[in-house]
């Protein structure tokens, strides 16, 4: 695993990269396979760490998992699953991922019991799991152990109950779907998240035999069934990775064709990209993103749940905004602490000030609560090389973009976090002409 790289910046990124299946869908589709004993087949699977973690967790529960990395095809055959012999072993796996909590519903249906290791994922806020627990309790689950991780039990069969989410959480919506599909009765889920990755998960569950309808008002209705079959599915492309390469093209003054990128799930991103002054061309095989020359424009925006501007695009976009003329305002409404990465950008010459107030949009959950969740970016600023520590997945990729746009040689440490969401990123950077070298 690479932990430190040297980046000689100043060269516009030019060329082509391919994105495969979405990090925010693939591991969940893998968990869904546990709802049937039959084989499921998932295509367009990228080589990212969360896929490894979930593969190992599935194997620990007795499933057979085969992954052809090059073809991107994953076969999962659960057969008759069991609880892991040594639940402590699971903790070693889970540290970097938030997916293990989604094993709860399928395991409770199968075994009436589940061990969930401590969750990982990016540190961009407190990220509690209270909505997940509330959902599981609604279906009859009880928590019987407060030590490391979580031990849940439930009487089978699980019974449907109305579920209302205080906020349209992606994970809690998925938790509800994966639990409700085989619960007795009809689950009405209100205030659900409707991200494209959730729609793809619903498509998979429907292929398996589930009955799920989605209304226009964030209500999802799930009619429980007794049995599900295996699925065959091609994962939707990773819109976050696609947007990240687009921002890298813009910030470095480059031109990148992102093979596999898809317009429909990126509408809000594409609008912002165009307003900032970037050009794009949607083609059958992907989307070309480029800097047309001249000035980039500042703008005000806020991150939001789908169909709003996704929070995971925020960090790469902020780097591009450091190169725009004027004052941009970004209001982060999904996570309370997602601007920590701007400190390193300021050290590199950017001018970004963070505020507790809700700027640039409507008041959000974090207003008056002491969280620095709005940023004001003054540009354009020349970026200079620095030694940087990667804080989290998207923050880390943003630092990489900044190092690529900066003059001079930067050293970026802790780079392996980026493997969580960017397949073969070193090869891709080199293919785009970046001067990046592994340290040691
Ligand atoms: C693996 C995966 O798919 N990760 C994505 C998923 O994360 P994840 O599913 O963790 O994000 P959620 O949508 O659940 O979180 C949104 C907000 O709800 C809060 N919350 C959530 C659950 C809960 O039980 N209690 C609670 O308070 C969170 O702290 C956060 O402030 O959706 C996020 C929002 O699009 C993305 O940024 C992540 O990339
Ligand atoms: C926040 C992210 O992921 P996770 O929920 O897996 O930590 C992300 O992908 O930017």
Per-chain topology:
Blueprint: E1 4-8, E2 14-18, H1 26-32, E3 40-43, H2 49-60, E4 64-68, E5 73-77, H3 87-94, H4 104-111, E6 113-116, H5 130-138, E7 142-145, E8 150-153, E9 163-164, H6 170-180, E10 186-190, H7 196-208, E11 211-214, E12 220-223, E13 232-234, H8 239-252, E14 255-259, H9 267-276, E15 279-283, E16 286-290, E17 296-297, E18 300-302, H10 311-321, E19 324-331, H11 342-347, E20 351-355, E21 374-379, E22 387-389, H12 393-405, E23 409-413, H13 425-431, E24 435-438
Parallel strand pairs: 2-14, 3-13, 9-10, 17-19, 18-19, 22-23
Antiparallel strand pairs: 1-23, 1-24, 3-5, 4-5, 6-8, 7-8, 10-12, 11-12, 14-16, 15-16, 19-21, 20-21
Helix pairs in contact: 1-2, 4-6, 5-6, 6-7, 8-10, 8-12, 10-12
The structure holds uridine-diphosphate-N-acetylglucosamine and phosphoenolpyruvate (PEP).
Residues 24, 98, 125, 127-132, 167, 169-172, 193, 195, 310-312, 334-335 line the site of uridine-diphosphate-N-acetylglucosamine (UD1).
